[in-house]
Amino acid sequence: MPLLAFETSCDETSVAVVRDGYVLWSAVSSQIKLHAEYGGVVPELAAREHLRNLLPVAEAALAGAGVKPHQLNAVAATRGPGLPNALLVGFKAAQGMAFVLRKPFFGIHHHEAHLYSPWITGNPLAAEFGAFEPNVSLIVSGGHTMLVHVESELKHRVLGSTIDDAAGECFDKVGKLIGLPYPGGPEIDRLARLGNPKAYDFPRPLLRDATDDFSFSGLKTSVRYFLRDHPEIAEDAERIHDLCASVQAAIVEVLVTKTLRAAKRLGVGCVTASGGVTCNRALRASLTAGCREAGLKLRLAEPSLCTDNAAMVGILAERKLMNQSEETSLDAEIMPGWELE
User: Fold this and answer.
1) Rounded-to-integer distance, Cα 330 and Cα 94, Å
2) What's the Cα-to-Cα distance from 22 to each of 122, 134, 187, rounded to whole Å?
């Protein structure tokens, strides 16, 4: 029987229907254009748009999957982390459905769901858990950057995370410094294709540090001072391309080096990557080359599953249901600052 999943942790309203490891339908309504006017996500607007979009998105997902509410076997929703009011919309709607239908309910950790998105592939989308193996997983997005050792299915250990700015946050803030439209990350990736990644030498924070933690605030500050001292760059398209390529190269080198180093230290044979920044062309290419050279298998989340989506939430919830994991109480509350343990 199918499972219905909701995801409203930030600025994407998403609902998916999954069954037996297959994503029967995944519907997503993005708010990027709305927030671009403000240069970033406005929490109050995000929550309002979730309220406006959730019902039609849910109806579209159920209709696309050919499933009626009474046919559902369970309901799930992102419980955290995320924007409090945004999380509330999807979480409470899911709880309400589970209560009315008298079905199991699962409150899912957003980052834990990302750990399994690289295993969802194909058309139609299916979770390839038959190929699952221990791995080091890089989760890299606008709000979070972390390395996780996934020892076995539903068993993981956080190795390190960002101590200040996440990689995606650094991309977006640098984009804003340059004057690029929001979100800055995809714009930097686009412009970097025409630039020289060795044109400017920016710092690689914590690259040689023995821990698995990340830090990108120093890189962002370095770019700020560089632009202050070289204001003429803003009027030179070629140098803007070089700047974007150089900043991107610094971020990618840190992410890839620390990921491969952790995989080698732990003796795993597989690396995975997910989260919005995993859409970055240079990161995907560098991880591919690095894993090939190191003799490691690599699984990258498909671009449609890199950003926030309910498909990964549903797939993880279904695995928890099949493994008889403890259900989430219908009295449970959201956890906006929920740490991945």
Assistant:
1) 9
2) 10, 22, 33
Domains of the chain in start order, with CATH, are 3-125+305-322 (3.30.420.40), 133-301 (3.30.420.40)
Instruction: Answer whether 273's CB lies under 8 Å from 119's CB.
Output: no
Q: How far apart are CA 103 and CA 1, in angstroms?
A: 11
Q: Which residues are bridge partners to 272 per DSSP?
A: 137, 299
Q: Which residues of the chain have pLDDT under 50?
A: none
Listed residue (150, 69, 75) closest to 116, CA to CA: 150
pTM: 0.95
Please give the DSSP secondary-structure letter assigned to residue 233: G
Give the DSSP letter of residue 267. T
How far apart CA 116 and CA 125 sit, in angstroms, is 13
pLDDT digits (tens, 9 = 90+) for 203-213: 999 999 999 99
User: Rounded to whole angstroms, how far apart are CA atoms 289 and 49?
Assistant: 40
- CA proximity to 248, closest of 292, 300, 308, 187: 187
CA 115 – CA 285 distance, rounded (Å) = 20
Q: Which residues contact 266 (CB under 8 A, 6 or more apart)?
A: 136, 149
